Amino acid sequence: MLSLTLQIVLNGLTTGLVYVLMALGFTLIFGIMRVVNFAHGELYMIGAFALTVLSGSLHWPYLPAILCSVVLVGLLGALLERVLFSRVIGNEFNCMILALGVSICLQSIALIVFGPDEVGAPRPVTGVVHLGPAVIPADRLFVGAAAILLLVAFYLFLNKTRLGLMMRAVAQDPEMAALHGVRPNLIHTAAFAVGSLLAGAAGALMAPIYTVAPYMGELPMMKAFIVVVLGGLGSLPGAVVGGLMLGIVESAFATMLGSTVAALVAFAVVVATIAVRPEGLMGRRA
Amino acid sequence: MTLRIVVMVAIAAMAIGWPFLLENRYITHIGVLIAISITTSVSLNMMLRIGQLSVAQAAFMGLGAYTSTLLVMRLGVPFLLAFPASGLLVAAIAAAIGPIFLRVKGVYFVLLTFAFGEGIVLMFQEWVSLFGGNNGIHGIPKASLFGTSMVSLRSYYFFALGLAGVTLFTSIVIFRSAIGTVLDSLNENEALSQSLGVNPLSYRVAVFAVAGFFTGLAGSIYAHYTGFLSPDAFSFWSFVDMLVINVIGGIGSPFGPVIGAILLVPLPELLRDVRQYQMLTYGLLLLTAVLFLPSGIVGGLRELQRRWRAR
Amino acid sequence: MKANLISACGMLLATAAMGLPGLSSAYAQDTLKFGVVGPMTGPGAQWGLAAAGGVQIAAKEVNDKGGLKVGDKTYKIEVIPYDEQYKASVAISAVQRLVNQDGVKFIFGPVSSAGTLAVMDIVKDAKAIGVTGAYSSKALSGSNPYMFRVYSVASDFAEPMVKWLKKNLPADVKRVAIVNPNDETGWDSDKLLTELYGKHGYTVVGKELYERSVRDYIPILTKLLAEKPDLIDVGTAPPGSAGLIVRQARELGYKGHIVKIGGSGPRQIIEGAGKEAAEGVINYLPADEQNPCYKRLSDAYNAMSGNQMNPLLVNWYDGAYILMAAIQAAGTVSDTDKVREALTKVFPYKSALGGTIRFGGHDIYGIHNEFLTPNYIGIIKNGDVVTVGTAE
């Protein structure tokens, strides 16, 4: 029983960390631009395909391949913001529809370019690691470690760099930030780029673990959405706590009662949370 | 004004008349799908007019479809009763959750109805003994009215067209009437209307229930027409269809979704041969509409009319 | 604002223009149309593409030889493939279009069970011949003589396979766990496998059903592995998913046997699981990959689509020839009742791969409407599939 519990927690933490990466980007974009980014799952998918092409088809070594994939998705995010989202910013409704349109376009472009087959990406690490009575696949441990590294980097970026501090300022009070000479355009582009980059990183990290296919982004998008609602839309600490919590709770429910029950419970909690406390479990009251 | 009435009568006559001139089962099939789509999209349009994007509409359609199906198949209720019951049940659910759901606004309402809708679809999937799970329910009997079974495609077309007409008419009446004025003022200045003694929440709940009612009825027709139900037909993506129809046609007018449905529902059928480009076309249309035609085709036509007059 | 108006008009024009070719139903006198309805995108696409590929290769071969001679006329075969996306609602639209718009009388598919159950009445009402790929036992019934099945299903080959396992695996293999997708196909497989393993002296210690969209099987595997199974059967899981299940089970430290009785696709299992994890997986195979004709078909498919061939393609290829033989025997391309009658008389039919395809199903479905194709057992060795026996 103890070993099963440990196994459940370990499984939950490793998936939870990926949820955190997805949710952080999603909530950052919302916090700063008020855009519900329905295309977040597709950015995850593109990150995964980028890694598959670079390290699989072009035989790049893993490290440059993953760095390049992540940067690529970040740049794509910046481009999307400049060309599309900047035109409708401020109108929540149009932003949502635009994001939906982008999501459909990216998914179908991937379908046209890569075809419907599920493909595998080369694995940087293989084998299993034993932790007491529990086992953990080495590649998942690797993903977990990489995710933690990214989280630390993201934290430092927000708290130690000028751009990061400006972003936080805009997220907290756009008008005040503007008075202090922060240019919202730059911040919006940067936020969308960083948010996309995190999604791309999640995708690129997970590519060797699951198979890669054009519609693979839908599920992680759904998870990010649940996490963000629980943690509070726009709340960064909320995304971290929410992501880990969802990972563990889901792992426990899925192991004990089946994955559909886990999903049903998650949705019920989301409905209850928004209805009772729309700002989320950890969000500030607007 | 008279010109407008003439045009509308002409369109209505065309909608009713063409199946007699052109007897083609496949095109009639598309016609049925368009009529069902008009009903659901105009219902979504009612919600959009009160400023709330309800993602749960697809799940509402599913609830109507399953209600009608189960009443007819399990309890032997005649279709004549099951049909209104499916609409009423959905309306009742909307009226019950409305006071809680409609208190939240904007993005939060979208997310709330999204989660609610996904939960309903999961229920269809998981509660196998009642809803048949992912396998769905097949062999749903044809709708029968007053003892005669609706076997022909054409009778379904007229039935669905009738429902679409009633839905459209209701939407126009609601938003033209005094209620509509109140609802519009709600969007503009809620504090003001509250101070005038209007309870905005109850108006919103009423619209939510009416939209749910018609969506449920559309679900019932859909179920008995296709003879088969499965949860996937009511997923997030069918909501996206309704939304795209609204955005392309124009959100500001009940005629927007009508035009949107007529143009978009046949699209996947026309693009079937190039199926991988089907979704892309959909996405690109959506982007184009949001960026260049924010009030949809109806908005564009109105602008055209305004300019014509101004010359 | 001007740009808006232009784009609006442009969109209207474009829609109208696209409408024209779609609505005119051109009917050429000497063309015989075969429809194919299967999932061509998404999970399960392997099976739909196999159906379309098999029928297309057969049609091309016949057309290259001048066409199909029926009575005193010669027909060019035209294949119309539609994607059912593994969704019943989409399958309905596809079949509606085939029978009512494209004027098709012969349909291969739908491949999915849900899709097939959804269109059975449409096929029957239109008096079209349907050759389904559905695993569901409800796909064939005495009340619908127009629906046939192109290959043997689990109820035909599962028992011989379990017997083969009993004979060839070590005697200490006792505890069995079964994993299946949560829908019609999965439920049928779950029921059948539970019964058969039990009947042949195994103990079923765990069973799991999962949603098709799931990619992380670690939670359900954690639960199953806690029961210490010696053998895991991944049933009718789509090959891509099966590959992931195999890999994740191995990564959780599972050392026992893995068997797949149903839904074949050993190449995708190797792709999804990796060479090491896939080693030793025992597969049901619809075709013997070592056969020279297999290589010929595989090359033809590769040249046509650029993808790797799924072994099920062989069954669809044979199925297309069987139907053409029946059409020739009936001497008509329009009277489907005659073709239906003729279909029952073309068996036993020699498969392109050499085995014999018989006709059967009466005991189970109350109607003889299944093409009983030969079945093989293959083991994954060193990233390749080796045929080790037959499941007859």
List the helices and strands and how they pair.
The complex is a heterotrimer of chains A (286), B (311) and C (392).
Chain A lengths: L1 H32 L6 H18 L4 H27 L3 H23 L13 E4 L2 E4 H23 L1 H11 L1 H6 L4 H23 L11 H14 L4 H22 L1 H18 L10
Antiparallel strand pairs in A: 1-2
Helix pairs in contact in A: 1-5, 1-6, 1-8, 1-9, 1-10, 2-3, 2-4, 2-8, 2-9, 3-8, 5-6, 5-8, 6-8, 9-10, 10-11
Chain B lengths: L1 H20 L3 H25 L7 H19 L3 H23 L4 H21 L1 H4 L5 E2 L5 E2 L2 E2 L3 H24 L1 H11 L1 H6 L4 H27 L1 E2 L6 H14 L5 H10 L2 H4 L4 H18 L3 H15 L1
Antiparallel strand pairs in B: 1-4, 2-3
Chain C lengths: L1 H22 L7 E8 L6 H20 L3 E3 L2 E11 L4 H13 L5 E3 L4 H13 L3 E4 L14 E3 L4 H15 L6 E7 L2 H16 L3 E8 L7 H8 L5 E3 L5 H13 L5 E4 L5 H8 L1 H4 L3 E4 L6 H14 L7 H18 L5 H8 L5 E2 L5 E5 L1 H4 L4 E3 L3 E6 L2 E7 L2
Parallel strand pairs in C: 1-3, 1-4, 4-5, 5-6, 7-8, 7-9, 9-10, 10-11
Antiparallel strand pairs in C: 2-3, 11-15, 12-13, 13-14, 15-16
Give an account of the 3D structure.
- The complex is a heterotrimer of chains A (286), B (311) and C (392).
- By secondary structure, chain A is mostly helical.
- Helix content of chain A is 76%, strand content 3%.
- Chain A contains eleven helices and two strands, in the order H-H-H-H-E-E-H-H-H-H-H-H-H.
- In chain A, strands 1-2 form a two-stranded antiparallel ribbon.
- In chain A, strand 1 and strand 2 (134-137) form a beta hairpin.
- In chain A, helix 3 (62-88) runs antiparallel to helix 8 (184-206) and helix 10 (236-257) runs antiparallel to helix 11 (259-276).
- Chain A is globular, with a radius of gyration of 19 Å.
- The N and C termini of chain A lie far apart (44 Å).
- Chain B has 311 residues and is an all-alpha fold.
- Chain B has one domain (2-235).
- Chain B has helices at residues 2-21, 25-49, 57-75, 79-101, 106-126, 128-131, 153-176, 178-188, 190-195, 200-226, 236-249, 255-264, 267-270, 275-292, 296-310; strands at 137-138, 144-145, 148-149, 228-229.
- In chain B, the strands form two sheets. A two-stranded antiparallel ribbon of chain B has the order 1-4. A two-stranded antiparallel ribbon of chain B has the order 2-3.
- In chain B, a hairpin with a 2-residue loop joins strand 2 and strand 3 (148-149).
- The longest helix of chain B has 27 residues, at 200-226.
- By secondary structure, chain C is an alpha/beta fold.
- Chain C has a seven-stranded mixed sheet with strand order 8-7-9-10-11-15-16, with helices on both faces.
- Chain C is globular and about 65 Å long.
- In chain C, 57% of the residues are buried.
- Residues 1-28 of chain C have low confidence and may be disordered.
- Chains B and C meet through helix 2, helix 13, helix 14 and helix 15 of B and helix 1, helix 3 and helix 4 of C.
